[in-house]
Amino acid sequence: MISIQQLTKTFGKLTALDQISTELPDSTCLALIGPNGSGKTTLAKSILGIVHPDKGQIIYKGKNIIGDFAFKSSIGYMPQIGRYPENMTIGQILDMIKDIRGEKHLDEDLSDAFSLNKLLHKTMRSLSGGTTQKVSAALAFLFDPEVLMLDEPTAGLDPVAQGILKEKILLEKSKGKLIVITSHILSELDDLVSAVLYMQEGKLLFNKTIEQLREQTGQVRLSSAIAQIMQSNPIS
Ligand SMILES: Nc1ncnc2c1ncn2[C@@H]1O[C@H](COP(=O)(O)OP(=O)(O)OP(=O)(O)O)[C@@H](O)[C@H]1O
């Protein structure tokens, strides 16, 4: 579980994160959603250690992880657009990252399911957007991390690859992992997420389970439930 306490981040006069306090439990696939500019990426990057918050704490296993580089080995990250050295091949990228991490225990489920072993000789420059996404997904899960942060993970993937990734996400959730997905495509989250954290203007509006959202709104589909909540609680 990750516990976020009074997390605040400003950029000049803009408050990107406004005293966010909430808990992200294990065995959860949590959707981090909200309008453009609401602070989702800033929150995700704070957990990833890319953004340094001004105030507050992010507690993982009893320790504040802000500025703690050791935590990074517990987290897998799939960026929306993966950027890799263009002249390197998929095989070289995989080998380089395995070398740097030096870990023996590898989870190659996604590499195998996406048949990346047939593409190892291809340079990153020559890959389609979807294949680059497959490499990013395979890397995020490769070291069997306890926490996964996935940014628009299925965007750009074909339906078969989307299905493979969704199955993998659900499998890892069932093993007790915390998976945080940032997405604007609510329909892709419907069969995946077990909780929703909704942000608006740097504030946390709610962090609720799917069951709570369904009970509150009477809606089965996530997109309909969120739409109903936003209509009944418009934020000016
Ligand atoms: N490095 C930065 N310097 C200045 N302002 C920033 C920086 N990063 C983010 N912001 C601002 O902080 C606010 C929150 O941005 P953030 O990227 O977290 O939003 P988001 O919810 O992820 O948006 P989107 O859905 O468009 O990706 C925005 O107003 C953004 O312009």
From TrEMBL:
Keywords: ATP-binding, Nucleotide-binding, Transport
InterPro entries noted in UniProt: AAA+_ATPase (IPR003593), ABC_transporter-like_ATP-bd (IPR003439), ABC_Transporter_VariousFunc (IPR051782), P-loop_NTPase (IPR027417)
Keyword Isomerase set for record: no
Entry annotated with the keyword Phosphoprotein: no
A single MF term (Gene Ontology): ATP binding
Domain of life: Bacteria
SMART domains, alphabetized: AAA
Ranges where the ABC transporter domain occurs: 2-226
Leader peptide range in chain numbering: none
UniProt cross-references to PANTHER family, sorted A to Z: ABC TRANSPORTER ATP-BINDING PROTEIN ALBC-RELATED
Listed name of the protein: Cu-processing system ATP-binding protein
Species for this entry: Arachidicoccus rhizosphaerae
